[in-house]
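Action item from last week, closing it out:
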Amino acid sequence: MKKNIYSEKVYLTGDKDAMDTFLKKREKSHLLHVMQRMVHQEEIIEYNKFLLLVRDLMKSFKLNTSLENAIALSYLIHHGYLSYNKKFDGKEEKDLVKDRLGMNIVRGHGCCRNFSEVGYDVLRLLDFHVKRFYCYLPILCLPNSVGSKQANHVINLIDFDDVKYGIDLYHGCSLYKFKNGLTMEKISMTDNGKIRFKPYYELLTGEGTLESIKKEIEEYALESKKRTISAIAYEDVARPETIAFMGRQKGILEDFHNETNEMKEHIALSLTKKS
């Protein structure tokens, strides 16, 4: 019977076939990234400058927590303020620079991987601890076969009040808490959907090793014992209050868009022209 290398029961034991496959894929991916960086060096430099402007905008709001800033950032993306001509469709589109996935947001497109990349970039610039969290949906149940599934979604992992949460910037800032080392459950009054951590992806990207991943799973198991924000406090207070606050910043946001649109235009059109 052929082994499924994406099953935690296989690769977390250090299975040679799985590790060889991941390392080969990582090497191929690395070469592609190098080539893309060479072609799009100018756009990458401009994009990095744009991220600093986004950071400065976020700082001007004086939001205190990683949670508030993540919700505010999702608002900016969904409302087109980080996109050329303020046109954002929220649709998946081919990524032209694989290790700068946030650049697709500037082009006006984006799915979970693009949102999580912008979240990772901007929250780090704001000095918050954040990482990409690769996982598997659907969420309402976790059948026995889920361990063999490949990752099909990515969110951000943030620290808030000394607890690690998963936040999905793409899907309405859904908030998740750990149930155990591999499973997160949505914090919601109406939906207790679950997602499954797929750590093999960290091996593919070079973000983790077998040793570091095993430590992560142990850490997440401990996180599951902590008390978390309630669904009422999040869905009725924290999230809507932050969204309402952002709605009151329309003048500032429109000024930001207008002042950066030429930069966004250059990034977006130059990326498309060279690809």
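Closing note: Residues 8-274 form one domain.
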